[in-house]
Automatic annotation (TrEMBL):
This is Reductase-like protein. Substrate binds at H102. PANTHER family: ALDO/KETO REDUCTASE. It comes from Mycena venus. GO terms for molecular function: oxidoreductase activity, acting on the CH-OH group of donors, NAD or NADP as acceptor.
Length: 302
């Protein structure tokens, strides 16, 4: 099923599965990406902020066969073309397939660090007067440059999308969000489906160490099909019509993660019941919530 693709609102085909590169240590990324692309992965997800983009594309594959995603980091949200140029230089490419706004806020472009400027009290140096819609207006201008085939957002809540969409000339092609049965974010997924915005699910295993792999219904479904719990968690997104990003630097896991299965109606119901019970009990689990000190409008955090 690794050849499966979905259609973006730009007309591009986007692969159903991608390799994530966040927290992949420099030095290990090159081998992981090369192994993944050789094994049949068609999408690599990177970001300026990951500081490993110089390893995130492998020679030996045809550029046009691979879907490359990168993101503008929050210190560049008033300078998105510069951010994209820097990423392209590191990647050694002249275009990416998809360029995303990594987070909808501005960190001080003139602060004391290129990526994580801090105030004297140690908190992140954020320009609170910045409107995320202004960043989107700059993103829209990038399409004509040919340096990216599509533009999209990441970490957008329903509230933020509802602020953006009435102002947008170009509807984002993608919203990349944390998504797994312990954080289904159904209200965002439903709005995106309605507006033709494709979901890319990040941290499908629950990020570092893959804690969601231990959730009881996930283990049960894995046993039923004779597959790894990771396979159930990745396949969950294919059943939902979403692209999924799995990060690994371990060669056999990179291969294991290529196995995607059809979850049947009973499996999907069991996972939905699990999500619903966590929602009811107020036990949803968000694993990626950096200390920006900003209300992004996620119901579990707002
Ligand atoms: N837009 C955004 O803000 C964000 C985007 N992302 C993107 O999504 C990608 C995926 O999310 P990420 O947070 O990295 O986490 P994942 O949910 O993909 O989990 C990665 C962890 O699971 C381990 N792992 C991977 N496969 C297996 C397996 N088959 N069996 C057991 N363990 C496994 C990895 O270990 P090991 O590598 O040691 O094998 C690593 O510790 C990121 O890399 C990034 O590209 C992620 C977070 C935020
Ligand atoms: O993409 C992954 C995450 O969003 C990551 O970029 C952030 O969590 C960043 O490390 C931060 O601390 O703000």
């Amino acid at each position: 099923m690794t050849d499966k693709t979905f259609k973006l609102n730009t007309g591009q085909n986007i692969p159903a599965l991608g390799l994530g590169t966040w927290q992949s240590e420099p030095g290990k990324v090159k081998a992981a990406v090369a192994h993944a692309l050789k094994s049949g992965y068609k999408l690599v997800d990177g970001a300026y902020c990951y500081a490993n983009e110089d390893e995130a594309f492998a020679a030996g594959v045809k550029r046009e066969d691979i879907f490359v995603v990168t993101k503008v980091w929050a210190t560049y949200n008033t300078r998105v073309e510069l951010g994209l140029d820097k990423s392209l230089k590191s990647l050694g490419l002249d275009y990416v397939d998809l360029f995303l706004v990594h987070w909808p806020l501005l960190m001080n472009p003139e602060g004391n660090d290129d990526k994580f400027p801090k105030l004297p009290d140690g908190s992140r140096d954020i320009i609170r007067t910045h409107n995320h819609v202004d960043t989107w207006k700059l993103m829209e201008k990038l399409v004509a440059t040919g340096k990216t085939r599509a533009i999209g957002v990441s970490n957008y809540s329903k509230r933020y999308l509802e602020q953006l969409l009435p102002e947008a000339t170009i509807v984002p092609a993608v919203n990349q969000i944390e998504n797994h049965p312990s954080l289904p974010q159904q209200e965002i997924v439903d709005l995106c489906k309605e507006k033709g915005i494709h979901i890319m699910a990040y941290s499908p295993l629950g990020s570092t160490g893959g804690p969601v792999m231990q959730a009881e219904p996930v283990v049960k479904i894995a046993e039923k099909h004779g597959v790894a719990p990771s396979t159930v968690l990745l396949s969950y997104h294919i059943a939902r019509g979403n692209t999924v990003l799995a990060k690994s630097v371990t060669p056999d896991r990179i291969k294991t993660n290529m196995l995607l299965i059809d979850l049947d109606a009973e499996d999907q119901k069991a996972l939905k019941d699990y999500s619903d019970s966590l929602t009811k009990e107020g036990k949803l689990q968000r694993y990626v919530y950096p200390p920006f000190g900003i209300d992004f409008g996620f119901p579990d955090k707002s």
